[in-house]
Amino acid sequence: MDFNRISFRVRYGETDQMGVVYHGNYPQYMEMGRVEWLRGLGISYKEMEENGIMLPVISLSIDYKKSAVYDDLITVETQLKKRPLVKIEFDYKIYNETGEILALGNTVLAFLDTKTKKPVKCPDYILEKIA
């Protein structure tokens, strides 16, 4: 599986006084997409951490195109950019119910050993599920 989609409505608390989604919420939307992408493979962040692996974000970029507003039904499409090694990279497309692109994003995360906090290669069980 190389991509996943999730959809949800913008909540009031995610907006400013003009009803526009605060820009700082988009990284959280991307995280939601990433978590669901992994869940689609049968992998949960919680289980990964219990198995000694954490995935901190080491790079994040967002290109804002159009504002999302309160009560919009938005979709986050998350796509694996390439086969992971020590890092895993995702591209995101966030769009509204009429298909207008709201934002394009990218994140790079590193596989770290939870005890040593040192980089490790992508676990085989993840590579097998991606293949």
UniProtKB/TrEMBL annotation:
Top-rank taxon: Bacteria
Keyword Transferase: no
Gene Ontology MF terms: fatty acyl-CoA hydrolase activity
Gene3D superfamilies according to UniProt: Hotdog Thioesterase (3.10.129.10)
Keywords from the UniProt entry: Hydrolase
Family: Belongs to the 4-hydroxybenzoyl-CoA thioesterase family.
Protein name (Swiss-Prot/TrEMBL): Acyl-CoA thioesterase
Protein source organism: Euzebyella marina
